[in-house]
Write a structure and sequence with these properties.
heterodimer; A: mainly alpha; MetI-like fold; 12 helices; about 75% helix; B: mainly alpha; 13 helices; about 0% strand
Chain lengths: ~290, ~300
């Protein structure tokens, strides 16, 4: 193993050791891993088909056969919440992946090369930032139409500006470092410098932003679902479940309780982990 | 200072041109023909062609965009709704005060809960007061506003029957929407105020103020608060954008006739000029708010003022 790899590994190991000492972050991580496992094994965990209607058993209160009760079509809410984790997490991670990929590229190119690239890209980012994120996502969904892929694109694209800005700011400070100058003096190409030196050194703030970003993406997608522009029925997305259930809150509040709790717990776990990672990875707070 | 304000006002223009171009382009390339939306599927080819010509839809894309912007700037005309044929400007102007009022009330809730909570938390760092405040702030940040709205309705409208669950005319009707919209942002403001206050608290001039024998209250209010508020003002400004977006969701929960609900209904009916006008109106408001925030920032931060002397 090269010295470079060893060093890199020890950095991640150190991060892990520091993170382990932060109780809140560990709780966040444990909940998140649990939710990911629920999403992966949804088929095994869910006792019923999330689409299966039983019109003889509508609005059943939570009991031993239906843990979270049933909805207005007699569908098992527990099974729907379990399958919903798959949709929400998928949207959260993929949307952030899109935002990170595009925003990271824009930020890296702008920050590293400056000049006309920077001016063009940053003006585009300014324009995108002038529209509130959820509104931008709503406009994109209005153009593309509903559906899980379009929702991922809408939420992902609407969060590009924040990633572009973070990466750009970091790249701009890193490119002035002596080791970049050294690499350039040795004849290393720009692409290679960006890939080998610049990107790895911007990872810390990007990881923090992405963790909290997944939470934001899940919330945006659920918000779109809630106003009826997200995942369409019968797919069990938590936001759309809340929207469907809100018409029955006077007599059957359990229809909204469990999807709402599921969203909150997911967001909470990501925020706890994100806060912890920020404390660990932000050099200003290290001492 | 005047130079700074003037420069900052000028910056709004290219951003708004950019936003209008972005939104116009997106809507222009949306699948579906606006003429079919207006005339219906059964319209004759002749009337389709005629309307197409009247609306200028046969013009090149850039000409259409230029005409759209010209109509906005010269006549404040955003076009006519494909569905009701009423002017989009009227539809938006009639709904906009509700959205703005809702967002402003949200900001009020956010500031009046967030800033005191953040200050108390920082002053009492690591005590039970701090722990409880920050626990609630964390819950507040993680709570989706639409679920919170539903919970508030269940609690105050269904269980205790003390506040109405819909409408937006009386102050009683405004309480639940304002709380729904504002508390999440209050949590963010509280966390920001706390960390900013803690940073200021470590500064030498605070120690100096204390060593002069000033009481803790005076130290906090006279010396720490003003410097704490600089980053907090930025966050509140950003939150305003978030709240304008959140207002769309809140309007849906409480059946408030605002721009957000208008837009959501318009999307369902493919009434794209309303969507386009709504986005522009909200983006414009957000830009103006950001302008105010930047100017306020300059008032609070002598370093910025000094740059433009």
């Amino acid at each position: 193993m090269s010295v470079y790899n060893e060093k890199r590994q020890s950095l991640w190991l150190e991060t892990w050791h520091r993170l382990r000492k932060n109780k809140a972050a560990v709780i966040g991580l444990v909940i998140l891993v649990f939710l990911i496992l629920v999403a992966i094994f949804a088929d095994v965990i869910a006792p019923y088909d999330f689409r299966a209607q039983d019109l003889n058993a509508t609005f059943v209160k939570p009991n031993s056969t239906h843990w979270f009760g049933t909805d207005n079509f007699g569908r098992d809410i527990f099974s729907r919440v379990v399958y919903g984790s798959r949709i929400s997490l998928q949207i959260g991670f993929i949307a952030v992946g899109i935002a990170l990929f595009v925003g990271g590229f824009i930020g890296a190119v702008s920050g590293y090369f400056g000049g006309i690239f920077d001016t063009l890209f940053m003006r585009l980012v300014d324009v995108m930032l002038a529209v509130p994120t959820i509104l931008l996502a709503i406009s994109i969904v209005a153009v593309l139409g509903p559906g899980i892929t379009n929702l991922m694109i809408a939420v992902g694209v609407s969060s590009i500006p924040s990633y572009a800005r973070i990466v750009r700011a970091n790249v701009m400070s890193i490119k002035e470092m002596q080791y970049i100058e050294a690499a350039r003096a040795m004849g290393t190409t720009n692409v290679s410098i960006i890939l080998k030196h610049v990107i790895p050194n911007t990872l810390a703030p990007v990881i923090v932003q992405s963790t909290i970003g997944v939470a934001g993406a899940i919330l945006s997608a659920a918000g779109l679902g809630f106003i009826g522009l997200g995942i369409q029925p019968p797919n069990p997305e938590w936001g759309s479940m809340l929207n469907a259930g809100r018409h029955f809150i006077r007599d059957h509040p359990h229809l909204t309780t469990y999807p709402g709790l599921a969203i909150m717990i997911t967001i909470l776990s990501l925020n706890l982990l994100g806060d912890g990672l920020r404390d660990v990875l932000d050099p200003k707070l290290k001492d | 200072m005047v130079k700074y304000i003037f420069r900052r006002i000028l910056l709004v223009i290219p951003v708004m041109i950019g936003v209008s171009f972005l939104v116009f382009t997106m809507i222009h390339f949306t699948p579906g023909d606006p003429v079919i939306t207006i005339l219906g599927e059964t319209a004759s080819q002749e009337s389709i062609d005629q309307l197409r010509e009247e609306l200028g839809l046969n013009d090149p894309f850039l000409v259409q965009y230029f005409n759209y912007v010209k109509n906005i700037v010269v006549d404040q005309d955003l076009g006519r709704s494909y569905v009701t044929n009423r002017p989009v400007t009227n539809e938006i102007v009639s709904k906009f005060p509700n959205t703005l009022r809702l967002a402003l009330l949200g900001v009020l809730v956010s500031i009046s809960i967030g800033i005191p909570l953040g200050i108390i938390s920082a002053v009492k760092q690591y005590t039970w007061v701090d722990n409880i405040a920050m626990f609630f702030a964390l819950i507040g940040v993680s709570m989706p506003i639409f679920w919170q709205g539903i919970l508030l309705i269940i609690l105050f409208s269904v269980t205790f029957r003390i506040l109405p669950s819909s409408g937006f005319n009386t102050w009683q009707q405004m309480i639940l929407p304002a709380l729904t919209l504002g508390t999440g942002s209050a949590a963010i403001v509280a966390r920001m105020t706390r960390s900013s206050m803690l940073e200021v608290y470590r500064q030498d001039y605070i120690r100096t103020a204390r060593s002069k024998g000033l009481g803790e209250f005076t130290v906090v209010v006279r010396h720490a608060l003003r410097n704490t508020l600089i980053p907090v003002v930025t966050i509140v400004g950003l939150q305003f954008g978030f709240l304008l977006g959140g207002a769309i969701v809140t309007e849906t929960i409480f059946s408030i006739p605002g721009v957000g609900r208008l837009m959501v209904d318009a999307i369902r009916q493919r009434d794209m000029l309303i969507v386009q006008g709504g986005v522009l109106m909200i983006a414009f408001t957000f830009s103006i708010i950001n302008l105010f925030v930047d100017i306020m920032y300059a008032f609070l931060d002598p370093k910025i003022r000094a740059q433009y002397k």
